[in-house]
Design goal:
- By secondary structure, the chain is α/β, with parallel strands linked by helices.
- The protein has one domain: 2-Layer Sandwich (Nucleotidyltransferase, domain 5), CATH 3.30.420.
- Helix content is 45%, strand content 21%.
- The chain has seven helices and five strands.
- Strands 3-2-1-4-5 form a five-stranded mixed β-sheet.
- A hairpin with a 2-residue loop joins strand 2 and strand 3.
- Helix 3 packs across helix 4 and helix 5 packs across helix 6.
């Protein structure tokens, strides 16, 4: 019996900034991404809000302004088309793009929602890699303790800025180190 063949994968680290905790009720305001192992291949876009709802802490942390984004942000359909085009550009024809994030659940739900709402498709399919879960599985450490271990071992001197591109690059570097471990 021959072993199954799987397509090669291109890991893409993704980070978003949003006006609140869930898509639809709140807006994805910024989207950043980069290829794991090649952070020079990166993407960044700021989007027009789809709703005026916001949580003050989310806006403050992201350092984004809804009024400015309403004027200068990219329409969501255009933003998602540009992101899809970038994904196709950085993913070789014989590879599958794989969404990677920390935490996956938050970033994934916004990106999947926006892809499906505005393009009726998602180039990442229906799955991704959560860095925290990957590390827990790799090390056998309890999931609840993983955040502290990752901060100590990998993020000690690298603060996350809440700029979607910068944080995607930091996540990509972390995941690349984990893959080499």
């Amino acid at each position: 019996m021959s072993p199954e063949r799987y397509p090669a994968e291109t890991f893409i680290s993704v980070d978003i900034e949003a006006s609140g905790p869930i898509p639809g009720e709140y807006s994805m305001l910024a989207l950043g991404a980069c290829v794991v192992g090649n952070p020079q291949e990166n993407f960044y876009i700021e989007l027009k809000p789809i709703t005026r709802n916001f949580i003050t802490e989310a806006i403050t942390v992201a350092k984004l302004n809804l009024d400015e984004l309403e004027q200068h942000g990219v329409e969501p359909t255009t933003a998602m088309l540009e992101f899809e085009k970038w994904i196709a550009h950085v993913t070789p024809p014989d590879h599958l793009p794989v969404f990677v994030a920390y935490p996956l659940a938050f970033d994934w739900m916004f990106v999947a929602y926006y892809f499906h709402r505005f393009l009726q498709r998602n180039p990442f399919g229906i799955s991704g890699v959560d860095i925290k879960s990957f590390y827990a599985g790799m090390t056998g450490k309890p999931f609840v303790s993983v955040g502290n271990h990752l901060k100590t071992e990998f993020f000690a001197n690298v603060p996350l800025t809440h700029n979607a591109r910068e944080d995607a690059i930091v996540q990509a570097e972390l995941f690349a180190r984990l893959l080499k471990s």
